[in-house]
Amino acid sequence: MSTEPEIYPVPADLAARAHMDRAGYEAARIAARETPDAYWSEQAKRLDWMTFPSKIKDVSFNKEDFRIRWFEDGVLNVSANCIDRHLPHRENDTAIIWEGDEPTDSEHVTYGQLHERVCRMANVLKANGVRKGDRVTIYLPMIPEAAYAMLACARIGAVHSVIFGGFSPDSIAGRIEDCGSTFVITADEGCRGGKKVPLKANVDKALEKVSGVDGVLLIRHTGADVGFVEGRDRDYETEAAKVTAHCHPEPMQAEDPLFILYTSGSTGKPKGVLHTTGGYLFWASYTHELVFDYRPGEVFWCTADVGWVTGHSYGVYGPLANGATTLLFEGVPNYPTVSRFWEVIDKHKVEIFYTAPTALRSLMREGDAPVKATSRKSLRLLGSVGEPINPEAWRWYHEVVGDGRLPIVDTWWQTETGGVLISPLPGATDLKPGSATKPLPGVELQIVDAEGGVLEGATEGNLCITDSWPGQMRTVYGDHARFFETYFSTYPGKYFTGDGCRRDADGYYWITGRVDDVINVSGHRMGTAEVESALVLHDDVAEAAVVGFPHDIKGQGIYAYVTLNKGVVATDALRTALVAQVRLEIGPIAAPDVIQWAPGLPKTRSGKIMRRILRKIAENELGALGDTSTLADPSVVDDLVKNRAA
Ligand code: PRX
């Protein structure tokens, strides 16, 4: 069916200057596979260790002796690696460029200033009782303080849990409760596309539902008049004035936790993905340099919010560990105009630009003129992340944004992987639009069939990883059994990614999307079970089943089948109320695109919902419903097809 797309060879100048060329890549793959301790020990020198590790890799994916440990006896501090070690030669270089929601707002923060501000914030945390190992919740807009807060936690050994500003008070409360967080850092409001996001008000509401938080640090960003709970809330400016700008970085074991980040799975509530100090920072730094072929002094812009893993690894930790200038953008791609991304690139002379296909698709719809009105001549590399990039969007990115002169790195990875695992290397890998191409050194992929049988050569199946890499998550916070169950039990001895994947005759990998009950909406992960739970909380709802469907801009949209209680009349007002209910429970990003009233859901005789059928109806693949004879009541399918929402 599929026609092989064109190949874009590595430009000769890139091959000549790259950190890793083709031969280097092949050699590194072999070294990482055959002599892992020697290879990773050598690579670990990129970090500044208080004690250099002598134990490098200690891993088993098997149930009996399951363990994942890297650089175990090494001692280091993440904030010292991201700041202090650059001071001797880079104190006056820009660490962070902040671009606000309004084009008139921007700021440059040097490494020297970053040091001072992070130390101050760290001292404020300490003065307010935050200790090594405590969990600190960060709910901030994309302002430099978000990076200061993360680095301040890392400096004193506190574990941060950043929550994206689009999540609701209920979601915040759930995450605070799950990790037993005692302290919250937030701002009065955020600004996105000219609209205000009521961050502090959301925190106040969340804290009505959960106990155990004894302090809220409030950063004044917009200056809005927000609630202030005496005894609990602290004003950041006031607190910062009381402490010094010197804070010794806490020596941390490599396997000590650095952060928790919640992400959706196919079942239950979001999982607290835990990443560690040594392995995570190493992987963020190593991949940032290799994948983007990063050189000191370059301006690097990852458009992801720090509330997502991409913002953690390539907005903050990777670039700062490498002494880069990282750009943090508070706004959105279409405010005040649809040229904003490209204007920001010109304004700050961005050299490497890393964004998501959903943003590209929405801008592509606006035509080429808003792009062509800008110069973009500072750019030398483009990146994509978060979902499969369709070849059409890839070509537009390449030809229109990149004027046909810039390579694109399509990077595949997950919250769980800490950093990129599959990606072209600019100086080593020929590109094929729509393919994330090849695994990085140390990443051992396998494609298996449903029973776990290993598939060789050109094939398609489920994507597994057979060995560990340093950036791998170490546990689900508070539930190690769930960690093993979720990722290592489906195909024993292997990490199962949850993604489907094709490998072509050249050994290139093509991610086809999730094969579990996770949907990817605008590059954001959403568990269908979470949305269903939110819907059934409504008094009028008896049952709900949620699936993904192809969406031109978002990649996938959310399609909900809802069965109402007996006697309840289906109205547009109820539909609106149900969408509002989901926004309230989870946040605006989980709002269903389509709600179809379903008098009945297709169930097996044992009561299991046949999602395969619901997916096909949502995708409008009505000819491919398959065998419905095992259903308890096959006639419900006819009704769903007949009344399919447009
Ligand atoms: O399905 C894959 C998709 O996003 C999932 C991971 O989502 P999350 O943990 O939120 O992390 C997103 C940012 C790293 C994966 O299981 N995905 C991510 N990148 C790509 C991708 N699918 C195809 N191509 C990619 N480049």
Sequence-ordered SSE layout with sheet pairings:
Layout: H1 12-17, H2 22-34, H3 36-43, E1 57-60, E2 67-70, E3 75-76, H4 78-82, H5 87-90, E4 94-99, E5 106-110, H6 111-127, E6 135-139, H7 144-156, E7 159-162, H8 169-179, E8 183-187, E9 190-192, E10 195-197, H9 199-209, E11 215-219, E12 233-235, H10 236-241, E13 252-253, E14 257-263, E15 271-276, H11 277-291, E16 299-302, H12 309-321, E17 325-329, H13 340-348, E18 352-355, H14 357-364, H15 369-372, E19 381-385, H16 391-401, E20 408-411, E21 445-448, E22 454-455, E23 459-465, E24 475-476, H17 480-488, E25 495-503, E26 509-514, E27 518-521, E28 524-527, H18 528-536, E29 541-551, E30 555-564, H19 572-585, E31 594-597, H20 611-618, H21 635-642
Parallel strand pairs: 4-17, 6-7, 6-8, 7-14, 8-11, 11-12, 16-17, 16-18, 18-19, 19-20, 30-31
Antiparallel strand pairs: 1-2, 3-13, 4-5, 9-10, 14-15, 15-24, 21-22, 21-23, 23-25, 25-26, 27-28, 29-30
This protein binds adenosine-5'-monophosphate-propyl ester.
Adenosine-5'-monophosphate-propyl ester is lined by residues 263, 309-310, 385-388, 410-415, 436, 497-499, 511, 513-514, 520, 525.
Binding site for CoA: 192-195, 310, 334, 522, 583
GO cellular component, one term: cytosol
GO molecular function, one term: acetate-CoA ligase activity
